[in-house]
Amino acid sequence: MSFETVIMAAGKGTRMKSKLPKVLHKVCGKPMLQHVIDASEKAGSAREVVVIGSGAELVRESISGVEFVMQEEQLGTGHAVLCAKDKFAESEGTLLVLCGDTPLLTSKLLKNFTEYHKEKGSAATVLMAEMPDPTGYGRIIKDGDGSFIRIVEEKDATVEEKKIKQVNAGVYCFDVKKLFKYLEQVRNENAQGEYYLPDVLPILKSVGEKVSTYQAEYCEDTVGINSRVQLAAADKALRMRKERELMESGVTIVDPAMTFIDVDVEIGQDTIIHPNTYLEGATHIGEDCEIGPDVRFVNMKVGNNVKVQFSYCHDAEICSDVTLGPYVHIRPGSRISEQVKIGNFVEVKNSVIGQGTKLPHLQYIGDSDVGANVNIGCGTTVCNYDGKNKHRTKIGDNAFVGCNTNLVAPVTVESGAYIAAGSTITKNVPKDSLAIARARQTNIKDWNDKRK
Ligand code: UD1
Ligand code: CA
After folding, report:
1. Domain count within the chain
2. Residues with Cβ within 6 A of ligand 1?
């Protein structure tokens, strides 16, 4: 049986000292709120309702596939969940409650946790973690025989209570009917004057309902992010987790500490990632590739057996058996076909480069359709912009473009055509012909003697 989820994400995140709502700060390339949503979906959540408030419009724009409810004033976590009450009027069974600032939660942990809650038949279950440094978290107060009493927030805790290392991870399962029946009874008489969600737990107990705790196996999975220092630590922890998964699946990462891979990146078996490589966004890399050192890929689709070093490529596709670099810039909308070789200091923008074509050094190819087995000489430039509009250039299969050619778009070089070095091509070049478009050379005899 599945469950529904509510995620609290209305707080400002004062301790972040940021103009951006806290839950939109990215961890391994993805907003922390999105991490939480993805984990709960993967754990089997049927539906997610996100409580928003601070920076609500920005959150709405950045996050999709969930329902939103507004908490106009941030009066505390108990109040936040209460704002979502109407959304669950028809609901029965389990409601998973999460915070938007715990991006390391795993779907496995949430699945085990919700299953435990159901097995126990409790009205509420709290996820508990044993933190080496519990500072900032709510502490779990238990009685002599280990049963749950209540949670005390750091700001309300006595010196003795602050020594407790068992903390509230901010993750709860509730019987949805029972939660909303008693949530309104929570008062705000505490150090922060807030309605604390954890305060509903002793209320449930007092009416004879069962409240359980469940201990997370790895406390790192439950850390909450309240500051930029914690953000950096979470980023590192998640990166290491991602890289461990990749290595376990057959990817070589030469130096994990010097490699930066976003969570949704996919990499095939026997690919080697060299240091100082950044793989970001929705990047998919095939098998047997060698990427890096010093490569940045953003939203790249990459085939098998591709070798790239010292380069930046974004929002483009590189097919199998391509060699790139050093110092190549592949820009959005480009497709680099199989067996292409692109050498040093080459920029390709919004262009298709056909199979087996060579761009060995110092070229700019923009808004172009280049055929197969084309050779483009050093220093060639596509003049795609007339100051007002961009135009396309077409180069047919097996064409040969000599060094230092300017191709003034719109222009077509048909298949098998040759262009002499140093030409400025403004007219179409027919199939298999030679175009020379440069001033003839004049040699002035004994010029140097006369000069003297
Ligand atoms: C909360 C818990 C604490 C727990 C910790 C785990 C309470 C009172 N305390 O503390 O016991 O150890 O999380 O990380 O619940 N939010 C709203 N509306 C509000 C207030 C908060 O939506 O009015 C959201 C925030 O955006 C955030 C989450 O609730 O995503 C938690 O709020 P935060 O202020 O970070 O709570 P903590 O002090 O960390
Ligand atoms: Ca928090």
Report:
1. 2
2. 8-11, 23, 51, 71, 74-77, 79-80, 99-102, 137-138, 151, 153, 167-170, 196-198, 224, 226
Give the pTM.
Answer: 0.92
Per the rule left: phi > 0, alpha: psi between -120 and 50, beta: everything else, 305 is left
Taking the C-alpha atoms of residue 292 and residue 297, their distance in angstroms, rounded to an integer, is: 10
Ranges of the chain with pLDDT below 50? none
Nearest CA to ligand 1 atom 36: 77
Q: Are the beta carbons of 336 and 330 closer than 8 angstroms?
A: yes
Confidence at residue 1, expressed as pLDDT on a 0 to 100 scale? 60
State how far the Cα of 270 lies from the Cα of 279, in Å rounded to an integer: 16
Residue 46 sits in the same domain as residue 130: yes
* Single-letter amino acid code for the residue at 450: K
**pLDDT of amino acid 12:** 87
Give CA–CA dist 260/278, Å, rounded.
5
Q: What is the pLDDT of residues 358-383, one digit of tens each?
A: 999 999 999 999 999 999 999 999 99
Residue whose Cα lies nearest atom 31 of ligand 1: it is 99
Instruction: Tell whether 448 is covered by a domain.
Output: no
Peptide bond into 326 cis (omega under 30): yes
**Which CATH number characterizes residue 297's domain?**
2.160.10.10
Ligand nearest the Cα of residue 171 is 1
Ligand 2 center from residue 201 Cα (angstroms): 19
